[in-house]
Amino acid sequence: MPRAEAGTPKWLANKMKAKGLQKLRWYCQMCQKQCRDENGFKCHRMSEGHQRMMQTFIQSPGKFLDAFSREFEEGFMKLMRTKYSRQRVLANTVYCEFISDKNHIHMNSTIWVTLSGFCQYLGRTGKCKIDHTEKGWYVEYIDQEKIKREQELEAKRAYELTEEERQKAEIAERVEKAQAAGLYREAEYTELMREDPDEKIAFKMPEVRLKAEKTEEGEEGAPGPSKPRNLFAELAKQRRAEKAQNNGTVGASSNANGHGEGIVDVSGPDASASASASASFSGQLDRRADEKDKRKLSALERLRLENEERKLKKVKTETNSTPTPAPAPASAVKQEDVEEETWLSEGLVVKVVLKDLAGGKYYKKKGKVTNVPKPFTGDIRMLDSGDVLRLDETHLETVIPNVGGRVRIVKGVHRGEEGVLKAVHLEQFCATVETAAGVREGMQYEQVCKLMADE
Ligand SMILES: [Zn+2]
Fold first, then answer.
1. What spacing in Å lies between the alpha carbon of 29 and ligand 1's midpoint?
2. Which end of the chain lies in a sparser environment, N or C, as judged by fewer CB atoms within 10 Å?
């Protein structure tokens, strides 16, 4: 029968008939040819092309069967994974969906003879959960990939767990060994004991040494002052020495490498850092106890001491200058805090700067210091009136004489020197004084005061 020409009614009829589902048993998978009836299929089987295809099939039937079966399964499972995932569905429904694609792999070319056989295969291989009812086989997709992922995760977790346990066991074993050797000391919580509350708290972590340093360390004994010490090694060595002294034998686990890892054994390469840190801390405490005598003073402590010393010295000078020291007036104490030394001394000419005294009668008037009964207080005889006032030095000011006048330096390093005023520099508010010891330049006004010769 010649093929109908495209566009003719016959061609259209053939197309329409081919559209629907057709009998599986008249489909030839090798030639991918669907026949519409028994006669047509018979004719196809007799055809030369089919014969040739069958020859190739016979040569390796397994290969073709496997390939077709795999393709069929893949197509079916693709539907299960996408459209029918997470639901229990009649296998026939999926199958109908699958074969609606006309170019699907037909089941008669697979290793499965019937759909139920295929279902059972799926159930057996764990690809689907299957159950049989009156209606037929139901299938439910099992996400093998998800299960696989979960299994992998589980395995990983289990591995980590065992790894952790292994490490713990290893540490425990080392602790036991060290305990047996008498080298291990349990880390315990104690109060922080401080000799001096101002001292800094320092933590020293055990340093990681390079191999080159190790050989150097082999000499033992005295690590250089700049080199960080291995407290562990020292502690371990000390313990070992004690032990040897006590029972005449050296500790069981003496270290061959001389690096002194006696206790460090516990904190081996993969042990937790906390164990070593705590042990190191106890070592630090030991060290501190050793050095408590020669420990340095903290900055704060030093300052306080210096301050006390200074005060002590001052009291001494005061008692020297005044044979009967009376309690200083409040204002004098205040002055003491700001200025350390009094500038007032006998023979100076000073200016009164106390406004309130006697209605301002003495304000800005000059007087001569005739007596200093105690530090910071002077008896002033006023130049004009001859009145004598006892005043605190805070109410007095120095007087700068004319150039050539006699002055005394009353403050600073040259305090007490007497000489002649050589110049006054008004812009810089300072003066130059020539004394027996030399020329003093840049003297502040309050450092220099006029002197009056005794009458
Ligand atoms: Zn064929």
1. 7
2. C
